[in-house]
Design brief:
Elements: H1 11-14, H2 17-28, H3 36-60, H4 66-88, H5 96-110, H6 114-126, H7 146-150, H8 154-160, H9 163-171, H10 174-184, H11 194-215, H12 218-244, H13 258-263, E1 268-269, H14 273-279, H15 285-290, H16 299-313, E2 319-320, H17 322-336, H18 338-342
Parallel strand pairs: 1-2
Helix pairs in contact: 2-16, 3-4, 4-5, 4-12, 5-11, 9-12, 9-17, 10-12, 12-17
């Protein structure tokens, strides 16, 4: 099992004219260069907000106003997750060791197993929206296609009927799912550095729970935990839902070339600098999938080059508003669950 986070097309595809020409354009524009100043500032700001949020909890203490801080920290945790994402892709540092150290520190700050997530995310990048190869399309709770719906059992069969309506409520559990999946992955012997990941994970849980139950009364601490983790899950899920859901799903031997595999299964989200901050640059999903190690502040500049290149090739380049992207994702989920709604109920 690989834990490399830099996804590159196979040699044959790198030499192919379509992606090779685009790569030269991107390189000539200087968009693959590191942005140390940007990441130093961004890391400092996010770390300050993280520390400041917990300091505010300590200052407010026994008051229900701490729940507003829980909501604030949910957003901060999401921003930490985005920093871990950029580090894993070597957007921050070029060297693997520096990238892994920074990614593990960020992951530990939110209770995420870095090795588990990195492996899962790398496989997603290699085969985005491929029903058999993309782990993000595993039907463990929801069904992503009608073929999955037809053979669904257990929770996916139960939830899949009305999963579009349940999608955002279910995201409240995504923060907890992140922790549980990280812990379960520690049993995988093929996962590198799983002992270190385990130490960091349980250290996070111990410190997090100790701080909460030391600073707050029992009921308030439980309420804080629920608000914080549920809103963190909603934010985390909302970061990734617009990117591929509702885009073409590949299956079987569907293996277009690298450029088309990444572009045709991804969707960009229109918006300004505030959208870039809120979505951590993932609103430029097409550019990110084509050039995973490109620093996120360069993705906006790359957009014009990539879009023009795709237009010249006749390759669909999909870009929508944020609300439309969520609508398309929900419509896709509802259509995927159709076989379950149409199935006859046995007498």
């Amino acid at each position: 099992m690989t834990t490399h986070s830099v996804v590159r097309p196979p040699p044959a595809e790198r030499s192919g004219s379509d992606f090779a020409r685009l790569s030269r354009k991107i390189a000539d524009a200087g968009l693959m260069g590191r942005r140390p100043g940007y990441y130093a500032l961004r890391t400092t700001v996010v770390a300050g907000l993280y520390i400041g949020g917990w300091a505010t909890v300590a200052l407010i203490g026994d008051s229900w106003w701490t729940l507003t801080v829980a909501a604030f920290l949910a957003v901060v945790f999401g921003q930490v997750a985005l920093l871990a994402h950029d580090a894993a892709h070597r957007q921050v540092f070029r060297r693997r060791r520096a990238s892994e150290v920074s990614g593990r520190i960020a992951g530990a700050g939110i209770g995420m197993g870095y090795g588990w997530w990195q492996d899962k995310h790398t496989r997603h990048h290699a085969n985005p929206n491929h029903e058999d190869l993309d782990p993000d399309l595993d039907p463990d709770l929801l069904v992503w296609s009608q073929d999955q719906a037809r053979v669904a059992t257990g929770l996916p069969r139960l939830i899949g009927r009305w999963q579009a309506f349940l999608f955002f409520p279910l995201l409240t559990l995504e923060g907890f799912n992140l922790h549980v999946s990280s812990v379960k992955a520690l049993a995988d012997r093929s996962l590198k550095h799983r002992a270190l990941d385990g130490v960091l994970l349980f250290a996070h849980f111990a410190v997090y729970l100790t701080v909460l139950f030391w600073l707050l009364p029992l009921g308030m601490a439980i309420a804080f935990l629920a608000v914080h983790q549920c809103l963190f899950g909603v934010y985390l899920g909302s970061l990734f839902a617009p990117n591929h859901k509702g885009m073409p799903i590949l299956k079987g031997e569907d293996r277009p070339d690298f450029l088309r595999r990444q572009v045709l299964t991804s969707r960009n989200v229109r918006g300004g600098r505030l959208t870039d901050v809120a979505l951590g640059g993932l609103n430029h999903q097409i550019e990110h999938h084509l050039f995973p190690s490109m620093p996120s502040p360069n993705l906006r500049r790359a957009r014009a080059i990539v879009r023009r290149h795709c237009e010249d090739l006749g390759v669909d380049y999909v870009e929508t508003g944020l609300v439309t992207s969520y609508r398309l994702a929900l419509v896709s989920l509802h259509q995927a669950g159709a076989p379950l709604r149409n199935a006859r109920v046995p007498a």
